[in-house]
Design a protein that fits this description.
Blueprint (H helix, E strand, L loop, with lengths): L15 E4 H9 L7 E2 H11 L5 E4 L16 E2 L13 H10 L4 E4 L5 E4 L14
Parallel strand pairs: 1-3, 2-4
Antiparallel strand pairs: 5-6
Length: 129
């Protein structure tokens, strides 16, 4: 008897939809000497709403002053500066240096940029409660 393999569909857990504006409001609450990561924001919101999974809804244009949102405060999961449609890596570097962060080159040929000791600078969103 041949080994039968079946594809089993496991549906995704339902998501709690969070307005993108709430994400932007959280960025405003990060003090000058702190940074964050998308995973930190998501973890905080999952606990806040008692949800296993969250998704952001809406867009940056839903927020009247989105041009002034401190998007530079968000680094990658490992503390690297990121290129995004709302904040270039160059602008992120400038803004973080203005706030006193030390940015170090790393990776192949030093072309990646990282916040030195980034874990020491992560904002604890649970202090907002």
């Amino acid at each position: 008897m041949p080994d039968e393999r079946k594809v089993v569909h496991i549906p995704a857990k339902p998501a709690k939809y969070i307005p993108y504006t709430e994400y932007m409001e959280l960025l405003y609450k990060i003090p000058t000497d702190k940074i964050t990561r998308r995973i930190d924001i998501a973890t905080y919101l999952k606990e806040k709403y008692n949800a296993e999974r969250i998704e952001f809804s809406g867009s940056i244009t839903d927020y009247p002053n989105w041009l002034y949102v401190p998007f530079w405060k968000e680094v990658s999961e490992r503390g690297f500066l990121q290129e995004s449609s709302v904040c270039s890596r160059d602008r992120q570097e400038i803004k973080l240096k203005e706030e006193g962060f030390h940015i170090v080159p790393c990776g192949a040929k030093g072309q990646s940029l990282k916040v030195e000791s980034y874990k020491d600078h992560l904002f604890n969103f649970y202090t907002l409660r």
